Every structure is written in structure tokens, then in C-alpha cells.
UniProtKB/TrEMBL annotation:
Biased composition (Basic and acidic residues): 1215-1231
The encoding gene: TRPM2
Domain Nudix hydrolase: 1350-1494
Annotated localization: Cell membrane
Keywords of the record: Calcium, Calcium channel, Calcium transport, Cell membrane, Disulfide bond, Ion channel, Ion transport, Membrane, Metal-binding, Transmembrane, Transmembrane helix, Transport
Region of interest: Disordered: 1-21, 1200-1231
Naturally occurring in which organism (per UniProt): Bos indicus x Bos taurus
Protein name: Transient receptor potential cation channel subfamily M member 2
Lineage: Eukaryota, Metazoa, Chordata, Craniata, Vertebrata
Topology class, membrane: Multi-pass membrane protein
Length: 1499
């Protein structure tokens, strides 16, 4: 609906390992990809032929798009290789034989004599392999595939997947990596992994990316998909499994080559003949086959897969107003060296990894050491683990390789917040899906964010994944107290995306619907209606002529129009159109789009608190929004929050029944009707509870005017919805009976009423009794008025009057119909005039002030009123003819027919009878059956009649006799009147006219004039007659009887309900009818005219059917109703638990739990044993250390000698310690005191890799013979301001280290540092890189970091506190696209006091003042900074100075704020609250923490 909606490269070292894309640090430019926003735009649902393209059209579009955009790679220069193919053929350096090359590759002399170079001799051309793929012999499951160049942009591939292949953007990206060769897993672990992986993929809407081949971890994923699909475990569609494989390493790839697309292409999985190639896995749904123009080379897809995963993780997906960057997680099974690189790259870039322990090799090595302190993860330990888990290939590990593995594993384990080890059965871990999602949340929790945005991000992820269990266990904890307003954006998202469990969770955590629903919220919800729902289509039609940008009030007013159509004319508009003055005050509703990274959700979601002026009942508005989309669970939760719950349930029933009338889909129609019946049952249940408690208050609920539901009543809503079960409730019928008897007692006999009607003085004898004691004791005229105004009396008096009218009418027609009207006939005219007046009164009766048009429509909606009008009009026509002498007889005929219609009117009177009322309904429904039967009968009558007439009679020209012969006689034949001459036996010439001239005789059939015998084929006419009687008499008549029987049975089963439902209309009619019967009713009409026309007294509906209560009384009544509704819901829950099916399910769940616990018992016992052994080992180590100290102390004191001193074995690292079981395991242990950032393998801003330096090899004193770091010094433009490159010693010999070298101070805060070979050595140890890197100077590079702080204050000026401590604000800056903020300091030019970065944010006139502030500040730190730019020969040392403004009125603070500016458009400046999650660089956070400790402030 247009009007409603305008509104993430690292290569792996092994070609047999899967790669993994890393999580990016900045948002990608989305201009090159399609908008991922889930839009509610679209047209109404149409037929399949109108909405969907044909298969050929879609295939043509896909072929055209791929041909224009997707390329493959081909070798264009054949160079014979020294290696032969598997078949012994001569091949090119690219791996392909000569016959698989282009003609130009073998015949061209352009590259003659050149060595084969893939960059020159491989070119791109349009791909020839794409389309649908079917695996032969494996069913009809169809997948998608494409062959593309390794240089294809990731944005183009993503566009192919989302737009051309029709995949929805994922909520999560799961990259499964590990061993590419087959490996063994324990059966139970394999089952747990498969079940968990598919569960998280299905529930969270994830994409699973693997290598796509039928081996190793890819095979495990494929088998998981297959097993779950065969078991029918999928309930929400197919799991998207994307295989990214190398085209040149693919076996049987020739079958996939179709230049115009394979639709489908048949692929054979031939593992026996694949050789060194590989086959595709048949259980993946999509394949991306990466081509580099070579054959038999693995690992070609790794760079493209990495880039694609990175790109996807940079995309933002929005739905329901919540936008999330697509998260990515790496799941690791087994694996080798390439897998280690993948994990290292992922962890380094902030991507969480889940390692499955027990799967083998790399996964088990990491799992074994994950819980150890970094200081215990040594080279010897890693060597031990490798020998244990890499038994087959351990000999291939060189010493340098082991050192590299040690360094990488240390870096992986150091960031424990990104590493999750799944251990089967330990610490309650049983499901891989929970481990994956918990890993993502744990990683999100470790990110640095401003304020509480990190928590919002976690909750948004849980909502996007639809995992309320994760939200309950990980997010809604005591660690975070949520304010209701903070949950509003996610509440909107849960509503729009139909996640009822989250709506329930938010309600349980403080969200109040009355405060949540504002005009902006409701407007946005209706903007995001489900495009396929019927209400969306109806609203679209109403908005057809509206402008594109609608005010909220206008849209809601159009919604109200559609709702009125659904609820009926008895309701008023639920949202009125705003006045012009109100429209000027309407705010512009923002787009409720919550970006979870970089933007505070509350900053973009503006919640209005002015809903009191916009809606009466916000819960009602939300309930309607849910019910019109047929969202059962959502509506049930909201209805449980409603106050006017009976009216709400009946309104929902009415809306659903009206929508079902226009629904074309049979399944949706049945769902609507079932849901409508459920809400009727809820209304009955709540009303039953109310009626049991208090009958009078329950009956007040029936006729109370509900302002929230358009000033209608519960009873009226039930009647409009035709909720017969509700209306037939005993409490409602008791109320109707009370209304029917008026003020009379219901135990009065009917004979007493008739007797008192005829002889009214008997009223004073006590023959009839009254409910009101005062009337019972009173003998005045009030008793007469109360008696004759009772609907039951009015009804019977009208019956007597009507019978008298019919008798008089019959008498005049049969006895006293004179040329001049007699006195009896005149009396009939007066009588009829009174009936006409009464019908006019009913026609114009409008107590609700709805207007004449509505009153007329309501009047003519009644069948009996239509009959009355017809009878009156026919009487007027007959009277007109009767008064004309020439048409006297015609008038009598018309009046006679009119008498029949007046007699039919008696059936309406009988509806009050419990016996006759349902029978009248049966007759009415049978009349419909007769109509359809007559259509079938007419086919046979006309077909037989025309055929018979044409065979027997020649050229009959008399129309009346044609009708008789073709229709009339054929119809009478059904009832036994067979034509006498149809067989020629009973033919008599004197009974017919030979020429058809006798008007009273039929024309004779074809006869022989000589013999006077019929000549028509008698056998044919007899055969036609037999067939006609067979079908008409036997088949059709029995069909009619069956139809009548079905109708009778239907009505008979609901006789009581139908009668009770029909009573209301009759009771309401006679309750509001004047007490005098016709013709005396004319006096009442005269009195009514005086009141309405002369005295201008408006009509009012009787309070018995529509009663407006006082506000206090209404509030008390609704509170009472809501209380009993809670009782009803509790009773329903109890009954649900008591149902046999539920009990069986509960027992089954308990049995499953017991079986699971028994299966896990031995694993838990072994886990407990491991914990006890680890504890014992630690205690023994502590004892050994103590004994060593005692021995040394005794020896130093002169006790004993060096001989005989026991040698204590060194403490060994505990093997396989479980981090989850070891409560003392820390994320960063104290022994990890060496610089960390300065040893990152990849040097920043370049592609230089450091030499891996494990922790134990950092100190220069530690021997490290194989240490051979690369030399790197960045080339800088300002060569005069920096030291020489350092690759030659002569320029460096002029540098004076450990001294003041001219304007430069080359002294270190840590004392004298060592100079070796003319280069200084980093006092903190090895870094893995020589040279000065990106720094300016060899040796210490001094910087200044001013920490400018002030107290955080509230609006009233008070200092904010958290956990009793005061809160600080610090001035931070950010450069360009970096996600991290920094302190406004850095390096200084020689002779300058202010850092260059600080000068960029301060105006020049304030520099001198700030220098003064620096001299007055307090030094909080002076020393070495662990910076990624540090090298073995250059490092950063800093002085941190605290400048604090304790008073908000400080003049210098005001001057500082006024002189802050940014000389660079990409630079940002802000005051930020000091918190441990502030997104600063790590070394700056250390300084900030010291400042917070200095002021005893919160951190």
C-alpha cells in the first residue's frame, strides 16, 4: 500500500580449510545495494494470475540480469605445464587441457614467449553456469547456483541473493568453518550440533554459510538440514544454507554449464570418481561457485567468501521500526592450520566464535586451554596439545610454526568475551543454538557503547531472532533495570513482526499499554499493516484519493470509517476527524527506526504522552490493530489487558465475521471464523462469571453505553455479530424476559393478562401481580399504566387487533364489497391508516441521532418491514382501482391478493413462540433451497418441453399454447399428468385442432392424413419422457427433500438458540411501541406529533436497552468486570492443565527431561571429577610452593646444607581446565603484564606482519634464538621532522639516546634503556617488529594527554550519582570514520606545550589560557603506553594531566566550551559520561580510570 508506507581479507594457509569473514568496524556504504527495509508497501492481495510472474518470465529476467552482471574467468593463453592431468593429458598452467581452451588461447601469438600469468592471461566473460540445480536421484528439491568470477563485487552477489534469488535479508549470519576432510564425531555430539545449528538458523532467520562440498564440516551441516527436513521439523520454511565453493575444484561441473541458464540443471554426486576434486553437497539450498580460471586449485573461494561475509555483516536490516546490523558468528568444528587463521582473524576483528569441544584438532586445542591464564599458555603446552590432537601431522610442525600457534592461541584466549566453548553436558550446556546466541550477546556485552545502548542492541538482537528464552535468561536480569519507556521501540517491533512472546515479556517487565499507545505509535502501526491482510486492502481503497503524506488524525479517521463498516451502523466512529485548529497542532510523526549501533533508540523514537486527547481506550486500539490482521496470540495477550472485555470480545467477533465474508482464501476464512467463535466464548465466560456474582450488575453491563466502542452496548454488538450463543445465555434471556413483562411479575398466567385486557377493572382485584411492591399495593391509575405499557400486554393487544383487522377485511372481501364503500370497509381504511402511521413512526424512529438515511436503511433491513410496505402499497393500488367503477373488479382482485400478504405477516407474530419461531426460520431457509432447486428443475423442464413440442407439433404459432406445451405440460408431468397422445395410443383427433385454429384446443401432432394416425417417432418421445421423469421425479425431487432435511436438521440443532436470538427484536419492537393497538394507536401518534414537532422533544432510546451510566458508577462496574475477567482466565488456565491431552503432554515432557538427565549423568560425574582433580592439583602446587619456601628459608638460616636438598618439580599447567567450572578464571589475569597491543600480528595502517612473540618470550632477558622480526619504517612526507628510516647506521649515529637531543628529549620515564646495534630497545620487551614503524622518533616518543573533566549534573544542577559515587564527564574527540573516541592529546611539536590534536579542537585565542590550565593540572600518569604502533626500537610514553572543573559556573569552563571547534569536518567533539563502557582506545581508558579513582568518581 503505497500511501501507508511512504512513510562485513585474510587468506587461509590451507586450501582444505573453510574461511570466515570478519566483523567490520564501520558501516558500509549502502548506496550500492538495495534498501533492506521491510516495507509494508504493496497492493492488495489479488489472484495468483494477477500477482505472480510466470516461471518463464522469472527465468528470463534472471537470465538477462546474470548475463549482464555476472562474469566467469577463462584462460586465453595456453602454456603447456610440466604436470599431466589425472587422465595423462597435457594441460595448461591453468590446469585445463587444450580442448577446453578458447581457440584464441591456442592459436594466438599475442603472448608468445611469455610466462603464464593469471593476471594477464585470464580474462572475464559472461558466465555460462547458473539457474536451478537438481541432484539426480535425490528427489525434486531445487536449489540455486551461479558460477562467478573471484573478483565479483560483494554488493553484486548480495543483490543476486536478495533480489534475483528472492532471499530475505538474514537476522543472523552463521559461518560454519572447520575441517574440510571427513572426521569423526561422537554420535551424541553430532546429534546435538545438528539440532542446535538448525534450530538457531530457523528460529532466528539466519543464513548458514559453508564451503558447500560434500565432505567435512560442510557435510555435517548438509546432513543436519536433510535429517530435519525429513523429520518434518521445519515449521517456518526452509533453512537457507549457502555453499561457497571453488568452480575449478568441482567434480561433474560440466553438467552445470548452460549458457542461457539451467532450469533445472541436473547434477550427479559421484564421490567414487571424484578423485582429488570434490562434489557439491545436495542438502545446501544455494551455491556460489567461485572461478579464477584454473582447474584443481583449492582455496580460490576464501577471499571472496571473507569479503562477502564482511559485506553482509555491514548491512542493516530493519523491520518493525528496529534496525540492526546483521550480526555474524563463527562456529568451529575440528579444523587445521587454516581454521586457526580463521578463528584468529575473527577474534581480532571482534567476531564471536563458538568452538565445539570434542570435534577434534584445532577446536579441541583451543577448548583445552581456553580456561587457563595467559601466563600458563606456553609454547611447551601448545606443543603438548598439538602432539595430542594432531597425531598424524604433528611431525610437520616446525618450531617457528609452534611459536606462531602459541601466539595466536594466546591472543584468541585473551579476548574471552568473544570466545565460547561448547562442552556437551557441562554447566548445563545442552543446546548449540543457545551457545551461539549467548556468544553473540556476550560479545555485544563486551563492546564499548555510550550509555545503555549496548543493552538495547542485545534486546534488539533477541527480538530479531525471536528468542524470548535468550532475552529472559541473558537480558532481563538484575544487572539491568529497564524503564518502560526504554522498551517502547522494541515493543513496536514485536507487534509489527508478530512476536507475541516478546509482547508478553515486555508487559511483564513494566510496559503499560495505556501509556505505550500514542497517536504516533498507532499511526506507525497502521502504516506497517501486513500487506496481505484484508483490512489493508479495504483501507487502501478508502485512502485512494488521499494525498501521499497524511496527518495521523486523517489516517486514523479513515481507519475509523473502515471499522464502522465492520462493526455496523450501530456504532459511531472510533476516531473522529480532527478540527482545523487541532490539525495545526498535530506533530509530524517520525519514522520509528531504531539503529542499534551508533544511534540511541530513544533519540529517534518520539513517544507522545498526549493520547488522552486522541483516544478513549489505547488497549482497544491495539486490540483492533491485532484482530484485523487475524493475529490470534497477539490479540489474546492484548485482550487480557483490556478493561471493557465483554464488549471487546464481541467487537472482535463482529470484525472477524465481517472480514471472513470478503476473504477468498479458505484457510484464512476458517481461521477467522474459529477465532470469532473463540471471542464469543470468552464473552460468554466473562459474562457467566459476572452473572454468578451479581445478576443486576451483569445485566447493567449488557445495556451500558460503551464510549470506547462507538457508544454502543454489549447486547447490540452481540446482535450485530449474530452471536447466538451469547444472546441465548441464561442471564441475557432473563433480562429480556424482564423487559418483556415490564413491571408485571413473570409468573402471571396468560389467561389473566387476556382477561384484564378485556375487562381492565379486574386490575384492581389483584388478579395480576407486579414486581414493584408499590404498584402491588397501589390501587391508582399507575397500575393501569404499568399494565398496559408492558410489552407482553402491548403484544397481545396488537395480536387481537390484527386478528380483528383480518376478520373484518375477509368479511368485506367476501360479503360486503359494495360499489360504494360500506361502513365496515371505511373502518378498514381507518385501520389501515393507523398501520401506515405506525410504519412511518418506525421508519423515522432515530433515537441515536444517526440521520434519516441510516434510519431508513435500518428499517428496510428487516424482512417483515419490507413485507409491510409491499402490503400497504398493494392495498393503496387496490383501493385506487376499487374507487374507479370501471376497475371495481380489478380492485377486488388486488385487495384479495393483498389479504394474502397481510396473512403472511402473521408469521412474524409467531416468532415469539418457542415452537413456531424456529419453524418459520426453517421455512425461510427452505425458500432459498427451493430457489436453487428451481434453477436445476427449469433446465430439465425447458429441455424436455421444447424437445417434446418440436417433435409433436409442427409450427405452432399461438404463444399461449407454445407455453402450455413447452413449459406448463412438462411441469405438470412431474406430478403425474402425462400427455395422452405422447405415445400415440390414446390419440383422438377430436381433442385437437388440425390447423391450430381452435383457441380452446391444442394443435394436433404430426399425423397421417389417410390413416389419421400419428407419424412421429413414438419410441423417442417415450424414451424422453422416461428419462425426464427419472431425473425430475426421482433425482431432483429427492435432492430437494435432502436439502430440506439438511436445513431442518441444522435449524433443529440450534432451535433454542435461534428462538432466543429472535426474541430480542420482537421484544425491542413492542417495548418501544405505543401501548394502544390499531386503530386506537392514532391517538398515540397524535401525542407523538405534538411532542416531536410542536414541543421539539427529541426521541430517546429506552434505558432498558441503552443506558448511559455516571462516570463513577461506570468505572466501578468496569473494575468489577476486569476483576472477574481475571478469575475467568485463571479458571481457563486451570481447565487447560486438567485436560487429558495436556496432562499427557506434561508427562511426556517430564519423561523426556528424565531421559535427558539420565543420559547426561555420567558426563556430569566426569565433569565433577575433573573439577575435583583440578582443585587437588592446584592445592598440591600450592603445597609444593610452600615447601620450597620453607626449605629455602631453613637453608638461608644455616639449617642443613646444599647437599640433599630435595628438588621440587616445577608446577605443571593444569590440563583441560574448564573455564566455566573454574570460578577463579579471569578474563585478564595479573600475570599477563606484558604489552599486548604492541604485539598484534598485523601492524596498523599497512600489511606488515609482526614476528609472533608469545608472552614468555617478551622480555629481552629471555632467550629467543629464532627471533627474526621484520624491519619496517613508514615513509612520511615530513622527513625533516622525523628520524631517518633506520636501515643504515650512519644517520642514526648522530642520535643521542637517553639524553636531551637538541629540542628532543630522548630520555625514558622508565630509566636508561638499552641501545643495541645503534638502535634502542623497547624497555617493555619484544614486539615482533624492528624499525620505528609509523612513529616519528626512535626510542621514546613523548605525548601529552590532557584529561578534561567536569561533574555530570541533572537539569536542576545537582551532581548525578551512580552507586553512591559522583559521575564525571570527559571531553573526547573522534576522527573520521573511526568508531573509537580518544582524549584530545597526542604528540607535540618541538618547543610546543599543546598537542597538535588539541590545537585542532581549540580556537587559537584560547591556546595560552589552556597552557595555563595545563600547568595548574595534576599529573595522573607518566610512563609507557601499550600502543599498536610501538616497535622494538620506537615506543610511546605519555604524561596524563587532569584538568577538572568542579563548578559548573566556572568562568574557564564556560570559556572552554565557547572556544571548542573542529577544524576538520570529519572530527567530532563531545562531553561524555565516564563509564567503563565508554568507547575509548584501551590505553586512554587506563588513564581515564586513574582520573576517576583520583576524584573517587564512578567508573
Amino acid at each position: 500500500m503505497e500511501l501507508l508506507a511512504k512513510r562485513h581479507r585474510d587468506q587461509a594457509s590451507s586450501g582444505e580449510e573453510d574461511s570466515f569473514g570478519v566483523q567490520p568496524r564501520r558501516v558500509a556504504d549502502l548506496a550500492m545495494v538495495p534498501n533492506l527495509r521491510w516495507s509494508s508497501t504493496g497492493l492488495c492481495r489479488r489472484t495468483r494470475s494477477q500477482c505472480l510472474f510466470s516461471s518463464c518470465e522469472k527465468q528470463g529476467d534472471l537470465s538477462s540480469w546474470i548475463s549482464d552482471n555476472i562474469k566467469k574467468k577463462e584462460c586465453i593463453y595456453f602454456v603447456e605445464s610440466s604436470k599431466l592431468s589425472d587422465a595423462g593429458k597435457v594441460v595448461c598452467e591453468c590446469g585445463y587441457p587444450r580442448e577446453q581452451h578458447l581457440e584464441e588461447a591456442t592459436g594466438s601469438h599475442t603472448f608468445q614467449g611469455q610466462e603464464w600469468d593469471p593476471k594477464k592471461h585470464v580474462r572475464e566473460m559472461p558466465t555460462d553456469a547458473f539457474g536451478d540445480i537438481v541432484f539426480t536421484g535425490l528427489g525434486q528439491k531445487v536449489g540455486k547456483y551461479v558460477r562467478l568470477s573471484q573478483d565479483t563485487p560483494s554488493s553484486l552477489i548480495y543483490q543476486l541473493m536478495t533480489q534475483q534469488w528472492g532471499l530475505d535479508a538474514p537476522n543472523l549470519l552463521i559461518s560454519v568453518t572447520g575441517g574440510a576432510k571427513d572426521f569423526k564425531m561422537k554420535p551424541r555430539l553430532k546429534s546435538i550440533f545438528r539440532r542446535g545449528l538448525l534450530k538457531v538458523a530457523q528460529t532466528s532467520g539466519a543464513w548458514v554459510i559453508t564451503g558447500g562440498s560434500h565432505t567435512g564440516v560442510m557435510k555435517q551441516v548438509g546432513e543436519a538440514v536433510r535429517n530435519f527436513s525429513l523429520s518434518g521439523s521445519f515449521c517456518e520454511g526452509e533453512v537457507v544454507t549457502i555453499g561457497i565453493a571453488t568452480w575449478g575444484a568441482l567434480h561433474n561441473r560440466e553438467s552445470l554449464i548452460h549458457p542461457t541458464g539451467g532450469f533445472p540443471a541436473e547434477y550427479i554426486v559421484d564421490e567414487g570418481g571424484q578423485g582429488h576434486l570434490t562434489c557439491l553437497d545436495s542438502n545446501h539450498s544455494h551455491f556460489i561457485l567461485v572461478d579464477d580460471g584454473t582447474h584443481g586449485r583449492y582455496g580460490v573461494e576464501i577471499p571472496l567468501r571473507t569479503k562477502l561475509e564482511k559485506f553482509i555483516s555491514q548491512q542493516t536490516k530493519e523491520r518493525g521500526g528496529v534496525a540492526i546490523k546483521i550480526p555474524i558468528v563463527c562456529v568451529v568444528l575440528e579444523g587445521g592450520p587454516g581454521t586457526l587463521n580463521t578463528i584468529y582473524n575473527a577474534i581480532t576483528n571482534g567476531t564471536p566464535c563458538v568452538v565445539v569441544e570434542g570435534s577434534g584438532r584445532v577446536a579441541d586445542v583451543i577448548a583445552q586451554v581456553a580456561g587457563l591464564p595467559i601466563s600458563e599458555i606456553t609454547i611447551s603446552l601448545i606443543q603438548q596439545k598439538l602432539s595430542m590432537f594432531f597425531q598424524g601431522m604433528f611431525e610437520t610442525f616446525t618450531e617457528s610454526k609452534i611459536v606462531e600457534w602459541t601466539k595466536k592461541i594466546q591472543d584468541i584466549v585473551r579476548r574471552r568475551q568473544l570466545l565460547t566453548v561448547f562442552r556437551e553436558g557441562k554447566d548445563g550446556q545442552q543446546d548449540v543454538d543457545v551457545a551461539i546466541l549467548q556468544a553473540l550477546l556476550k560479545a555485544s556485552r563486551s563492546l564499548d557503547h555510550f550509555g545503555h545502548e549496548n543493552w538495547d542492541h542485545q534486546l534488539n538482537l533477541a527480538v530479531a531472532w525471536n528468542r524470548v528464552d535468550i532475552a529472559q535468561s541473558e537480558i532481563f536480569t538484575d544487572e539491568r533495570q529497564w524503564k518502560p519507556s526504554e522498551l517502547y521501540p522494541m515493543m513496536v517491533a514485536a507487534l509489527i513482526t508478530n512476536k507475541p512472546e516478546f509482547v508478553k515479556l515486555f508487559l511483564e517487565n513494566g510496559v503499560q499499554l495505556k501509556e505505550f499507545v500514542s497517536q504516533a505509535t498507532l499511526f506507525y502501526l497502521y502504516q506497517n499493516l501486513e500487506p496481505t491482510c484484508l483490512f489493508h486492502c479495504k483501507l487502501d481503497r478508502v485512502l485512494g484519493g488521499e494525498p501521499e503524506r497524511l496527518d495521523p488524525g486523517v489516517l486514523l479517521q479513515r481507519v475509523a470509517q473502515v471499522l464502522r463498516e465492520l462493526l455496523g451502523d450501530s456504532t459511531q466512529l472510533l476516531y473522529s476527524r480532527p478540527h482545523s485548529s487541532d490539525q495545526q497542532r498535530l506533530f509530524t510523526v517520525p519514522s520509528v527506526k531504531i539503529s542499534v549501533q551508533g544511534v540511541n533508540p530513544q533519540s529517534s523514537y518520539k513517544h507522545s504522552s498526549s493520547q488522552a486527547t486522541f483516544t478513549i481506550d489505547p488497549v482497544r486500539d491495539l486490540l483492533i490493530w491485532a484482530i484485523v490482521q487475524n493475529r490470534r496470540e497477539l490479540a489474546e495477550i492484548i485482550w487480557a489487558q483490556s478493561q471493557d472485555c465483554i464488549a471487546a470480545a464481541l467487537a472482535c467477533s463482529k470484525i472477524l465475521k465481517e472480514l471472513s465474508k470478503e476473504e477468498e482464501d479458505t484457510d484464512s476464512l476458517e481461521e477467522m471464523l474459529v477465532l470469532a467463535d473463540e471471542y464469543e466464548q470468552r464473552a460468554i465466560g466473562v459474562f457467566t462469571e459476572c452473572y454468578r456474582q451479581n445478576e443486576e450488575r451483569a445485566q447493567k453491563l449488557l445495556v451500558r453505553v460503551s464510549e470506547a466502542w462507538g457508544r454502543t452496548t454489549c447486547l447490540q454488538l452481540a446482535l450485530e455479530a449474530k452471536d447466538m450463543k451469547f444472546v441465548s445465555h441464561g442471564g441475557i434471556q432473563a433480562y429480556l424476559t424482564k423487559v418483556w413483562w415490564g413491571q408485571l411479575s413473570v409468573d402471571n398466567g396468560l389467561w389473566r393478562l387476556v382477561l384484564c385486557m378485556l375487562v381492565f377493572p379486574l386490575l384492581y382485584t389483584g388478579l395480576v401481580s407486579f414486581r414493584n411492591r408499590e404498584l402491588q399495593a397501589d390501587r391508582c391509575l399507575a397500575r393501569v399504566r404499568a399494565f398496559f405499557s408492558a410489552p407482553v400486554v402491548v403484544f397481545h393487544m396488537n395480536i387481537l387487533s390484527y386478528f380483528a383487522f383480518l376478520c373484518l377485511f375477509a368479511y368485506v372481501l367476501m360479503v360486503d364489497f359494495q360499489p360504494q364503500p360500506s361502513s365496515c370497509e371505511c373502518l378498514i381504511y381507518v385501520w389501515l391508516f393507523s398501520l401506515v402511521c405506525e410504519e412511518l413512526r418506525q421508519l423515522f424512529y432515530d433515537p441515536d441521532g444517526s440521520g434519516l438515511r441510516k434510519a431508513v436503511l435500518v428499517y428496510f433491513s428487516d424482512y417483515w418491514n419490507k413485507l409491510d410496505v409491499c402490503a400497504i402499497l398493494l392495498f393503496i393500488a387496490g383501493l385506487t382501482c376499487r374507487l374507479m367503477p370501471s376497475l371495481l373488479y380489478t380492485g377486488r382482485i388486488i385487495l384479495s391478493l393483498d389479504f394474502t400478504m397481510f396473512c403472511l405477516r402473521l408469521m412474524h407474530i409467531f416468532t415469539v413462540s418457542k415452537t413456531l419461531g424456529p419453524k418459520i426460520i426453517i421455512v425461510k431457509r427452505m425458500m432459498k433451497d427451493v430457489f436453487f432447486f428451481l434453477f436445476l428443475l427449469a433446465v430439465w423442464v425447458v429441455s424436455f418441453g421444447v424437445a417434446k413440442q418440436a417433435i409433436l407439433i409442427h409450427n405452432e404459432r399461438r404463444v399461449e399454447w407454445i407455453f402450455r406445451g413447452a413449459i406448463y405440460h412438462s411441469y405438470l408431468t412431474i406430478f403425474g399428468q402425462l400427455p395422452t397422445y405422447i405415445d400415440g395410443v390414446n390419440f383422438k383427433p377430436d381433442q385437437c385442432s388440425p390447423n391450430g385454429t381452435d383457441p380452446y384446443k391444442p394443435k394436433c401432432p404430426e399425423i397421417d392424413q389417410a390413416r389419421q394416425e400419428p407419424v412421429f417417432p413414438e419410441w423417442l418421445t417415450v424414451l424422453l419422457l422416461c428419462l425426464y421423469l427419472l431425473f425430475a421425479n426421482i433425482l431432483l425431487l429427492n435432492l430437494l427433500i435432502a436439502m430440506f432435511n439438511y436445513t431442518f436438521q441444522q435449524v433443529q440443532e440450534h432451535t433454542d438458540q435461534i428462538w432466543k436470538f429472535q426474541r430480542h427484536d420482537l421484544i425491542e419492537e413492542y417495548q418501544g411501541r405505543p401501548p394502544a393497538p390499531p386503530p386506537f394507536i392514532l391517538l398515540s401518534h397524535l401525542h407523538l406529533i405534538i411532542k416531536r414537532v410542536v414541543l421539539k422533544i427529541p426521541a430517546k432510546r429506552h434505558k432498558l436497552f441503552k443506558n448511559k451510566l455516571e462516570k463513577t458508577e461506570e468505572a466501578a462496574l468496569l473494575s468489577w468486570e476486569m476483576y472477574l475477567k481475571e478469575n475467568y482466565l485463571q479458571e481457563q488456565q486451570f481447565q487447560q492443565k486438567q485436560r487429558p491431552e495436556q496432562k499427557i503432554q506434561d508427562v511426556s515432557d517430564k519423561v523426556d527431561s528424565m531421559v535427558r538427565l539420565l543420559e547426561m549423568a555420567h558426563l556430569k560425574q566426569s565433569g565433577a571429577m575433573e573439577q575435583r582433580l583440578a582443585s587437588l592439583e592446584e592445592q598440591v602446587a600450592q603445597t609444593a610452593t610452600a615447601l620450597h619456601w620453607i626449605v629455602k628459608a631453613l637453608r638461608d638460616s644455616g639449617f642443613g646444607s646444599e647437599e640433599g636438598v630435595p628438588t621440587l618439580a616445577p608446577q605443571k599447567a593444569s590440563v583441560g581446565r574448564d573455564p566455566e567450572l573454574d570460578s577463579r578464571s579471569k578474563a585478564e589475569d595479573p600475570d599477563d603484564a606484558y604489552h599486548v597491543n604492541a604485539r598484534h600480528l598485523l601492524y596498523p595502517s599497512c600489511s606488515v606482519l609482526r614476528f609472533p612473540v608469545p608472552n614468555e618470550k617478551v622480555p629481552w632477558e629471555t632467550e629467543f634464538l629464532m627471533y627474526n622480526p621484520p624491519f619496517y619504517t613508514a615513509n612520511r612526507k615530513d622527513k625533516d621532522l622525523v628520524d631517518p628510516v633506520g636501515d643504515a647506521l650512519e644517520p642514526l649515529s648522530r642520535i643521542s639516546y637517553n639524553a636531551v637531543d637538541g629540542p628532543l628529549d630522548r630520555r625514558s620515564f622508565h630509566g636508561v634503556y638499552t641501545v643495541r646495534d645503534g638502535l634502542p630497545l623497547n624497555p617493555m620487551g619484544r614486539t615482533g617488529l624492528r624499525g620505528r614503524g609509523d612513529l616519528s622518533r626512535f626510542g621514546p616518543n613523548h605525548t601529552l594527554q590532557p584529561v578534561i573533566t567536569r561533574w555530570r549534573r541533572s537539569l536542576d544542577g545537582a551532581i548525578c550519582r551512580k552507586n553512591v559515587k559522583k559521575m564525571l564527564e570527559v571531553l573526547v574527540v573522534k576522527h573520521g570514520p573511526s568508531e573509537h573516541w580518544m582524549l584530545p592529546g597526542g604528540s607535540r611539536e618541538p618547543g610546543e606545550l599543546l598537542p597538535q590534536n588539541l590545537k585542532q579542537v581549540l580556537q587559537r585565542e584560547f591556546w595560552s589560557s589552556f597552557e595555563r590550565l595545563l600547568t595548574q593540572g595534576m599529573k595522573v600518569y607518566k610512563g609507557y603506553m601499550d600502543d599498536p604502533r610501538n616497535t622494538d626500537n620506537a615506543w610511546i610514553e605519555t604524561v596524563a594531566v587532569s584538568i577538572h572543573f568542579p563548578d559548573q559556573s566556572d568562568v574557564e569552563l564556560k570559556r572552554l566550551n565557547s572556544h571548542l571547534h573542529s577544524c576538520d569536518e570529519g572530527m567530532a567533539i563531545r562531553w561524555q559520561v565516564v563509564d567503563e563502557r565508554i568507547p575509548l582506545y584501551d590505553n586512554h581508558k587506563v588513564i581515564l580510570q586513574k582520573v576517576a579513582a583520583l576524584f573517587m568518581a564512578y567508573y
